[in-house]
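ingest -> validate -> predict -> emit
validate: passed (alphabet ok, no gaps, 304 aa)
predict: started
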Amino acid sequence: MPIIIPRDLPAFDSLKSEKIFVMDGTRAVSQDIRPIEIAILNLMPTKEVTETQLLRLLGNTPLQVNVTFIRTTTYKGKHISERYLDKFYKSLQEVKRMKFDGMIITGAPVETLPFDEVKYWKELQEIFDFLDENVTSTIFICWGAQAALYYYYGIDKHILDKKLFGVYNNKKEISHEPLLKGMDDVIRIPHSRHTAVDETKLRACPDLQVLVSGEKCGPSIIKSKDDRRIFLTGHSEYDRDTLLNEYNRDKEKGLDILPPDNYFDKEGEIDMSWASTANLLYYNWLNYYVYQVTPYELYDDIHK
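emit:
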């Protein structure tokens, strides 16, 4: 089934060329199907890249998925035009009367700052409160996961001695977990971060479960026991060359950065060993934690 996005969103043609079933809203309304409503709060500076990465994964299910992009208004990024944001994104004020089956909150390049020094921290807290009343299940990615763990459970982060940068092996800690259905015993996940959550407090929290962790990267997939919050400390959504692009970017800036760990094979080619994990992760989330439990009627005044 298709993912529903505006026809002139740049990701539309990219996904269509990959044989991912995309559809614009005009065609979608002619079908007698109640689509799954997913919101994406995109905090990444490279918004078009992140849009394509996430839409690719959301489009890999039998469900019809309607996507709404959300932006912050208290901070305006330098890497995307205001015109683009006005055309494809909505603010919290514009969606506050809406309800969503699921939501994704991305990472952001602010991880070394204390949370209360992030320019849009107050607005993000309002969005977190919005989730409690209006969203069935939410995925938080990287810094988004750290921010949510801090806001909801008081679990802080700390700066690492060196950047965690590469693709790392993880193992399941919970058997028969629907979110991990179909995954191999060894789960490969890209990470790119300077900080980590307080693992001692994380594991001591009675409301959370560590589902997947690695010796070098620590907990990678965490879930609240009520199934409403999924925390991903890595970046399963990354494309084949995302880590390479980040490495080249940092080298050009003169930063002290080593090539990503476990990323290249013996011939020096990129070993993309996380794609199946990413597809299963989002497929399972949409199926087991969104579609199977969300109410049929969202009572959404704006969509009516």
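The radius of gyration is 19 Å.
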